[in-house]
Amino acid sequence: MNPGREALLALFDREMREHARPDAPGGRVERTGDVVRQVGAADDWNGVVWSAPDLDPARADAVIAEQVAHYTALGHDEFEWKLYSHDRPADLAQRLTAAGFEAEEPETLLVAPVAELSTRVALPDGVRLRTVRDADDVELMARAHERAFGSDWSRLRQQVLTRLAEDPDGFVGVLAMVGDEPVSSARMELYPGTGFAGLWGGGTVEAWRGKGIYRALVAFRARIAAERGYGYLQVDASDMSAPILRRLGFLALSTTTPCVYRSR
């Protein structure tokens, strides 16, 4: 029997946060008494992934200041504190803001047992899915992402190129193609030893939205996750994606807000 919501959230916190593994080649995870943080190169994701559940108001401000000093001393002019709505103390978000962090758009943490998800890929006529194989495919991913989201993909481009070259077994990139044109792209991060795989991206260009491509990308990656022995899929979902994922069988566990510190 699959665990309930509270047990699943506890499993996620333990496996993916408290005992986090580096998500980039060359990155490292550092554990102090009160936080777990990731440190990598400038193009990698750098930030705090977990804070102790007994972190209280008397220690919180000092712990926050320690992280700012730590990353600044390493020469990182930007890092993130990945805040979850169930983290403590209850006013941690306000304390981060007071310390100079900027809260970005919140997302819903959704998790689903892979065995309960459909792996049937249904696509509109003319659309095909394939995995990312090389640097040219990464450029297609970038084109699809920038057209779908209207945002720059240069930092993600470098991260994906590095993963493809140095850790291909821990990363899956997927393209939805119409002829030679990318109309959607998505990624899956595999976290060995955790039982979790993470779904990221899934942006579709406007003319192709509402045709089932996003659902097909989820099913396609769920199939790969199942083949590789992963038990759960995890998504930090936008307001646009969350309703679709709930209909597919994902369970909302918490809300996560990227709190970003920029020193300049």
Q: Could you describe the 3D structure shown?
A:
- By secondary structure, this protein is an alpha+beta fold.
- The chain is built from 7 helices and 12 strands.
- It has helices at residues 5-18, 57-73, 92-98, 135-149, 154-166, 213-227, 242-248, and strands at residues 28-31, 35-39, 47-51, 78-84, 101-103, 107-113, 127-131, 171-178, 181-191, 196-204, 232-237, 251-262.
- The model has no long low-confidence stretch (mean pLDDT 94).
Taking pLDDT < 50 over at least 5 consecutive residues as the criterion, the unreliable ranges are: none
Number of helical elements: 7
Mean pLDDT: 94
Structural class: alpha+beta
First-to-last CA distance: 50 Å
Helix-residue proportion: 25-40%
Tell me, briefly, the overall form: globular
Q: What is the strand tally?
A: 12
Radius of gyration: 19 Å
Task: Provide the succession of SSEs.
Answer: HEEEHEHEEEHHEEEHEHE
Please summarize the sheet with the most strands.
Answer: 12 strands, mixed
Task: Write a concise synopsis of the structure shown.
Helix content is 33%, strand content 31%. The protein has helices spanning 5-18, 57-73, 92-98, 135-149, 154-166, 213-227, 242-248, and strands at 28-31, 35-39, 47-51, 78-84, 101-103, 107-113, 127-131, 171-178, 181-191, 196-204, 232-237, 251-262.
